[in-house]
Amino acid sequence: MRVAVAGAIRRAATLPLADRLAEAIAILLLIPLTLSVALWNGFPIIFYDTGAYLLEGLGREFLAERSPVYSLFLDYGGAGASLWFIAVIQAAATAFVMVETARAVAPNLGLGAFLGACVALVLLTGLPWYVGQIEPDCFAALAALSIYLLAFYAPTFAGWRCWLLMAIATFSMAVHPSHLLLGGTLVAAACVYRGASIAARSRIWPRVEIARSLACCVLGLCLIVASNFELTGQIFVSRAGPAFIFARLLQDRIVMRLLDDTCPGAHYRLCTFKDALPRTADQWLWGRGSPFRRMGRFTGTGPESTRIIWDTLEHYPLLQARAAVADASRQLVTFKTGDQIEPQEWILSKPLGRFIPDQLGAYLAARQQKGEIDFRPINDLHVPFAWLSLLGLVLALVWAVRRRRKENLLFLGYVVLALTANATICGALSNPHDRYQSRLVWLAPFALVLIAGDRATFALRGWGESGT
To answer: Residue 342 in contact with residue 434, Cβ under 8 Å?
Structure first.
């Protein structure tokens, strides 16, 4: 019996991902694998924003700084009964997109090798920390991968796979403004690629179809507007954008320079607080004694924040550009795992006790809330691995250029673009935080695994013939 079981396992491990049985097994096994950190913790990972999402979704109290789409997802996804429902849905979406990406890019990769690589990703990257976290961060990578598949492998995906990819792409972009900007940037890049291909009349490079990915961007925007309308009865996209951009300008000392140069003649309300401004963006947005609170937070400061943003662009365009580039560059290499994943019962016990009282005991018993998670040894592995992966990404790009592996070059270049765009959006429009790039940096080693694992000769296989 043992011999038969071992033989069956060995045969299954050698199945290529193009095989439908291998696809199903990979997805089913990847779900608990990506939830391994949350399972070890004893409860889904909680972030400081989790309480606000619960308040907005389950309490139907609009918060300008939180995504209404993700908040309502918590409600409709069953968070009131168990946050595990949310974590499992996130894991299932992640597993599906990862497997479909592997089947498209490396269809001949064996099931065993793929799962082995995924185990390495779980151990050496922040992937499971975001999948098992009640926070929309895990969807940033799913947005990037889904758009790539819909644009560059359109002939490969049909039927339920296509519809599910479109649903995931749409939702992934809608759950956070930065995801929508990231998706829009990647779709715009695909449009430029298509335009260049048409202009050059080239049939050498892989073709791209933008209709589906563009539709996902539009639907994502519509989903945001609809969610805002459900909570407020008003139609708008965001009321928090100016506050986050302003906070970054404050941290870069550009706001202080404007106030020094123009107060009191400019008649900003902020002139009153000029000598008491916080030094960092986080202190401005979340500090208890911040003038931001006294001026009405996101709603009350919106008009003046917008005015100051435009005034700084007019007065100091070069300073703005230098600061934006510096922040984006810093964000690109800021990717430690565990950013603000710490005991949080001092602030979250009250909202969790209000909305999910039956889960409060498990929440307080989790390793996270007991302070038993030390990220120092974790980052002793994760940070060097991320650096090596980024270096490998660059070397793989050089290899693809020299070998004229156009499909490989396209995929690797797309991953580089996604990482760079994410860093620019989060660093320049908000301010650098480890979690913004950590949530996406696992795409680098994932891309390298797929490129290395594809044993087929592209010259003998037509574009789109991935076996799906």
So the answer is: no
Whether 273 and 400 map to the same domain: the answer is no
CA–chain centroid gap for 14, Å, is 32
Query: Which of 75, 73, 76, 78 has the alpha carbon at shortest distance from 58?
Result: 75
DSSP 8-state assignment for residue 276: G
Q: Assess if residue 466 is contained within a domain.
A: no
Output the CA–CA distances (angstroms, integers) from residue 424 to 210, 307, 329, in the order listed: 23, 22, 8
249 and 233 share a domain? no
Phi, psi of 16 (to 5 degrees): -70, 150
Q: What is the pLDDT of residue 415?
A: 97
Taking only the tens place, the pLDDT of each residue in 114-126 is 999 999 999 999 9
pTM (predicted TM-score): 0.91
Residues 64 and 88 both lie in one domain:
yes
Q: How many domains does the chain have?
A: 2
> How many other C-beta atoms are found inside a 10 Å radius of the C-beta of residue 377?
8
Within a domain: 374: no
- Tell me if 468 is assigned to some domain: no
Nearest to 112 by CA among 28, 5, 4, 25: 25
Q: Is the peptide bond before 264 cis (omega within 30 degrees of 0)?
A: yes
